[in-house]
Amino acid sequence: MSIFSYNGAAIVAMAGKECVAIGSDLRFGVQMQTITCDTPKVFKIHDKLYLGLSGLLTDAQTLHQKLMFRHNLYKLREERDMKPSTFGHMLSNALYERRFGPYFAAPVVAGLEPDGTPFLCGMDTIGAIETAKDFMITGTSPESLYGMCESMWRPDMEPDELFETVAQCLMSGFDRDALAGWGAVIHVITKDKVISRTLKTRMD
Amino acid sequence: MGSNAGGFDFDLCKRNALLENKGMTLPKAWKTGTTIAGLIYKDGVVLGADTRSTSGSTVADKNCTKIHFIAPNVYACGAGTAADLEHVTEMVSGQVALHRYATGRQTRVITAMTMFKQHLFKYQGHVSAALVLGGYDLNGPHLFTIYPHGSTDSLPFATMGSGSVNAMAMFEAYYKDDLERPEAMALVARAIRSGVMNDLGSGSNVDLCVITKDGVDYLRNYEYLQAKTYTRQFPVKYPPGTATVLKQHVLSLKGVEVIEGAEEMDVS
Hints:
Chain A has helices at 57-78, 84-97, 142-152, 159-175; strands at residues 10-15, 20-25, 28-30, 33-36, 42-46, 49-55, 105-112, 118-123, 129-132, 135-139, 184-189, 193-199. With 204 residues, chain A is an alpha+beta fold. In chain A, the strands form three sheets. In chain A, strands 10-1-2-11-12 form a five-stranded antiparallel β-sheet, with helices on one face. A five-stranded antiparallel β-sheet of chain A has the order 5-6-7-8-9, with helices on one face.
């Protein structure tokens, strides 16, 4: 039984034309039992930076709280929000610090750099960083998510097209996963607004 | 987090060991299966690497960078656990920069090699990093291999990683001393390609890095082998409204207008 499939999650992030979208499922369960359907796995760090965390939910929540603490201190000292690329490297270092006793959480970082270019990166549980120009996924059924994203991603999508694509990839991906699903939320970040939509999905 | 003076933090080990005793299997870290190679030619060193990073048998990154910067005249190719490689090369790169500022001299390749081997030996092979380190310093071109337990070799041509036998086959057949630059680059690219095509842990593209006394030529994606041979004739475009939305929340990010310098503060 893998620690990674104790809670279950599905997270997809994609880059479009001067926008990014990141979405996750809403199930919170303990092995085969579902407890709630209102637990998003994507957390806001600041207006233009969102962090998705899959894996053991307790570690995902602890890691999110520790990162918010570090970001708040950074904001007080620097008087500005952290750039997504900086945040990605800080997260990579924070995970590698626990190389021999890791947090069981695999992150996906999605945001817009100050000049408006999309930034996407993902990591394994010990902080090996991968920056992507197209999409990043993490969760309990990576094969189905990879399959959908590889097929459906196109370069330079507008925010509305990007939303529809992420929605279909996420929903079709987690429909093949018993441990993820039960609702989905997707955030689309553009330079002048963030639209968060909760989707109607199969509740099984 | 961020409270100790660097190094590793072992505070979650007890909890993780407890979970393992209960039968939980730990998640797999990303590895760089890899084919990395280097050779010394007439004017310097040529390093080469593939660009595939794997998580079990799934490709995690189709175009990752395995030739890491150590100093302006020293680069290292890495095979092993991806996180270990990135962090150990960044750490040695930082240490070697501080050493440059302290000594006021150009970095020597053996300095970087000694820092790597001392770190890896200290962790007894648990930091899984196998490297091909190459560079050009005041004593000429150098090429070293560094193994995860901390042993090193100094060689005229070297390969490491799961595709090392594939690449070494090319080197053993075609290597000569004092090759010219185009021949050396072609041979390293061929060796890496041999790994990419025949080893399952290596794939995607070929990166090269040529280091001479005049500088470095970092040829990212020297051979781009993963171009799709087809494109969808009718790409799938979902019309707006395909996904049913239950709730929508719009957060406007247009900044608040700040009017400054309207009136002087009254300090009487």
